[in-house]
Design goal:
mainly alpha; globular; 227 residues
Length: 227
């Protein structure tokens, strides 16, 4: 395990820490309640969710490739990937605020509310499930660790550190609010307003990028690389 590998993973984790699920929703929860319990439950849920997803991918990716590598690299599999990529790219337009405005449709809003422990756990699981497929940096990090052929004793703590970095910004905001008191409230409110304005656009771009990458990879194989 090299310093370069760790720095690359740290950079990817910092990018992941700015997603709607790891930063956007926590800001809403910070403003919705003075208590920290709900936010801590949410952050713990999403961190555990991503850690378990990472463990499953690390343990299963090599096995899947060994057993089903030929199937996954077959023409039918690439056609499915192409259709999925085009579908995600097309779906991105449904969330595009400018396109919705032209059609006279209201912009989609994301405003989660603080609830009891069960509600916060459900919110964390829902946010993680909706975002995991579009979190390209996280999937890239899993790919990097798999390619580096790290041992279990190496990648488990690295993965745990990765998900911890992902939730550091909201934890820092929580601590800062405790120290700064009401001074931070208007700044969080402005941040929430900005995210509320751009969340749908960010989701649209995320779906479009993932869809394009999937479709491009499949199209390159099917039309240019296939023997």
């Amino acid at each position: 395990m090299t310093i370069g590998l760790l720095l690359a993973l740290a950079a990817l984790a910092l990018v992941d820490s700015t997603s709607f699920g790891t930063l956007g929703i926590p800001v809403y929860l910070l403003l919705a309640s003075k208590r920290s319990r709900g936010l801590l439950i949410y952050l713990a849920t999403i961190a555990i969710f991503y850690f378990l997803v990472g463990v499953a991918l690390m343990l299963g990716l090599s096995t899947v490739m060994e057993r089903f590598g030929d199937v996954l690299r077959s023409d039918p599999a690439y056609w499915v990937q192409l259709v999925l990529g085009v579908g995600l790219f097309a779906l991105s337009f449904r969330f595009d605020p400018k396109r919705r405005a032209k059609r006279g449709e209201p912009a989609r809003r994301f405003e989660p509310r603080v609830g009891g422990p069960r509600v916060m756990v459900l919110l964390g699981l829902t946010a993680g499930a909706l975002e995991v497929a579009t979190m390209v940096p996280y999937l890239a990090a899993i790919g990097i660790m798999t390619t580096a052929e790290l041992t279990t004793g190496q990648w488990v703590p690295v993965l745990a550190a990765y998900v911890l970095v992902m939730i550091l910004p909201p934890l820092a905001l929580m601590a800062l609010r405790g120290l700064a008191g009401t001074w931070l409230e208007p700044k969080l409110e402005r941040l929430r307003t900005w995210m509320n304005k751009h969340a749908a656009s960010a989701l649209s771009w995320g779906l479009a990028i993932v869809g394009f990458l999937l479709a491009r990879d499949a199209a390159f194989y099917l039309f240019f690389q296939r023997p």
